[in-house]
Design goal:
Blueprint: H1 2-14, H2 16-47, H3 53-73, H4 75-79, H5 81-84, H6 95-99, H7 106-127
């Protein structure tokens, strides 16, 4: 793990855009697992099925326990966002882009991401029995 961490740091310094794309891809993979588990918890609460208790508990654990780890692992995406997302640095030339321009900035990206992580935390703390560490 130490060697992998050192090689990742070298890759982040040498080619930050490529490192950012790879990090984003890995992050989205694990995020899809956590949010998929949260989706199953929401569906189980909506249907109130008795058979799903064992599956629901497992999904509650996945959704709530992966939240703090993925919130920390999202930090490189924030720091490398101008390299990953080119639309963050483009000028607002079109009227449609100008109308949405506050979201298409680095600060807007961070604010929307924080709001989504807040909704995720709220859902896992309300629906799940496992509280995030």
């Amino acid at each position: 793990m130490v060697v992998g961490g050192i090689l990742s740091a070298i890759g982040a310094i040498a080619r930050p855009a490529d490192f950012g794309f790879c990090w984003l891809m890995a992050f989205m993979f694990y995020l899809s697992i956590a949010l998929g588990a949260l989706f199953l918890v929401i569906v189980h609460h909506l249907t109130d099925a008795g058979w799903s208790v064992a599956i629901r508990r497992f999904c509650e654990h996945i959704a709530s326990l992966l939240f703090p780890c993925l919130a920390i692992l999202f930090l490189p995406v924030i720091f490398l966002s101008p390299k990953i997302y080119t639309w963050l640095t483009l000028p607002a030339t079109d009227e449609l882009i100008r109308a949405r321009w506050p979201v298409f900035t680095c600060y807007g990206f961070v604010a929307v991401s924080a709001a989504f992580f807040g909704v995720w935390w709220l859902l896992t703390s309300v629906l799940g029995t496992v509280k995030p560490v």
